[in-house]
Design a protein that fits this description.
alpha/beta; single chain; eight-stranded mixed beta sheet; 326 residues; Rossmann fold
Length: 326
Amino acid sequence: MTRKRLHAVLPAVLLLAACDARPPAIPVAAGDTLLPVNGTRLWVHVERGDATGPVEGASPILVVHGGPLLDHGYLVEPLRPFAEAAPVVFFDQRLSGRSDGVGAPGEGLPEVSLGLLVEDIEALRSELGLGRIHLLGHSWGAGLAVRYAIAHPDRVRSLVLVSPPPPSFDLAEREGLAQIASLEPADTAGLGDARSSPGMARGDPSTVEAVLRMSFRGQLVDRALADRLEFEIPDDYIARSAALRAMGPELAGYDLTSELRGLSVPTLVLYGAAEAGVTVGGPAWEALLPDVTVTAIDGAKHFSFMERPEEFQRIVGEFVRLTPAP
């Protein structure tokens, strides 16, 4: 049965601060570090609020960015307010952003799988001593987050899926077609030439970043906001892309429906009201998950936290506050 959680209108920070007592505050310092995790090194960024520190014992929020091959940076500003009440931990996924690349030329491409990326999350949670977490994933990262919750439900207090890929490959194809059909000429103007440019073929970081911004125009109600997106593009972007393409067969034909029916973790699925996922993936999540709230933010698409940050923070903060204690 779908839970209806959206009641009061309170700032996200106050809602998180009102959480009942949790285990002792985690020993994670604010700042950046390249942390050895699960056979690689992941770039980790922690936000901990002002000098008074987060609320004693508040469960941390672990954030899984979109992509793959992107980095966590675009999520820091919209999620920073939560750090006043609880530690917020960001990281660049394996082979993404500032995390380790593919190694020296001639060493061959590393093996990558969805299971490995999921276990990176668990290894990071354990290494940082995070205990039971609120897990928030955006886009591709929401797909990893839900797979983590399926594998480790006892370690997740709540699950927040922001514009997630649908729970099955068939639905993902439908959603992709709906998204393409919604595009306007201004969304794709110049994109084909940019993708086939010599700079893109070389993996030139500035060219790749420009192409990414152009490709996200159609996923924003206000296209101009795409120019504010900044990404950490590594010099070995092409090699990393080749390594991550090994997951293609694993992604083709995926179906999480049976696992989702048994996932009792309280879950919020959040869309921008103008994106295709609302009408394709949204009803599927609502039908499959036993403890779920599916909602949409007006005036937004795939980056609702950028287009409607106050509404996004209110909804997420309220959901986390109302998640039952363990």
